[in-house]
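Case study.
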Amino acid sequence: MKYAIQVSGLKKSYGSQPVLKGLDFQIASGEIFALLGVNGAGKTTALECIEGLKEYDGGSITVNGKMGIQLQSSSLPAHIKPPEAIKLFAKWNKAEIDDSLLHALGIEEIAKKQYAQLSTGQKRRLHLALALIGNPDIVILDEPTAGLDVEARLSLHEQIRKLKTLGKTILLASHDMAEVEALCDRIAILNDGHIVFCGTASELTEKIGKKYLIHMKTQQGTKTLETDNIEDTLLSLLTRLKQTGDKVVDIKIDRGTLEEHFIEMARRLKA
Amino acid sequence: MSGFWYGTALQWKLDMRSKSLLVTCYLVPLIFFLLMGGIFTSIMPEMKNTLIPAMIVMSVSMGAFIGLPPSLIETYASDIKKVYKANGVPLYLGLTAMFLSAFTHLMIMCMILFFLAPILFEAALPANFPLFFLALAIYILVSLSIGCVLGLAVKNQSKLTMIAQLVFLPSIMLSGIMFPIDLLPEAFEIIGKIFPAYWGYRLMLKDGFTLENLWCLIFVFIIALTVCSLLLKRKK
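After joint prediction, the assembly is written out as follows.
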């Protein structure tokens, strides 16, 4: 299998403080891969080592393809206008400007504004456009939707999905579990400098345990039950209802969000 | 147009949009010129002979030490540096583009002073135009190189404001542009000679384009360029 990114035994310390203690993971071409972790877990450090912005102390990183990078904290000169920034970056990368991409990211709407006048969402869109200018094979996004409102976040998700349909490999770091669940093929959880889980969201659910939540509203009140055995629990609940003469008004079953699983895993690791 | 020249032309545009550059490179020097030009030439009519170089030293010092460094800090002590690096824009672009843009702005301001001084205050024009403009260009280059060192070495704007004043004020007060340097105590005269303004002012005076006045400026320029390249390397 051809990997877009291969990381083996990656180590990085800041002074005497080790941050990455031997990371191993591979990202397949065309995959959307997420790095998850609590604050200070080393996600941004790992990304910056892959991006070549930071030197690392040990291990190896192989990147097969051209990278486009959107950093977590990005900035541009206060008075620059989006088309000027795009043209500047395109010229240095000897790349053609793809007007359809600019249209899709809504750059035309903000063309006359200076960078300092852009909203957080508009700045994010501009930085994504800059990352995509050179038509990269691999797109690295560090907290791409941090600080965005719901509408801007959904719009950016749509762009990320479009990139996948174009065959791009996407590596993203995020705190937003719902985002990761909605977008990513695979996730890796980083804790204390190690990858403690690498797989799909459903594999993570399996690993944590198949817990279901049953929210049931009846004429007599509302109940929420947690169970590993959905069939038996439901049957027993409905039997009891029939015996008492109560009636179901509404019933909802869910398996818990990725966020809940992530919190659970973090809790277990801490314990 | 290559990335470098587009970046330089863009920097010129950005500087035009920036109000701080307008203030430090044009507005304050012009107000200073209008006030002090009137005062100096009324109190000491002989200052008409040195008014153009004196006002130029003030304007260039203001633009180079107070105007340029904050723009460099905006780029090199912020996330702009990382964005440039991550997206294939070389780090030297910001420095060289700002240097060239500031050079052009300061040259324009000096030309304004050059043409206004004789009309408003009957200031004497230099005897040798080519040598005068060569001296002016050298002085601007040297001052900007020091401004670049300040902008790359200092990491925040508030510190910069203080440190820039430590270079700007002695440059103005001890260079001899406001009063003859031999009126000052010897210690101040020696301190004044440390600053390029002292030598730049003399280089632009009549018969001042001599090796004695030039070598110190060249020496400072080489040192400043070396320090800039080291600082830039460290920022990688």
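Observations recorded in class. The domain at 3-205 of chain A is CATH 3.40.50.300 (Rossmann fold). The mean pLDDT of chain A is 86. We will return to this complex in the next lecture.
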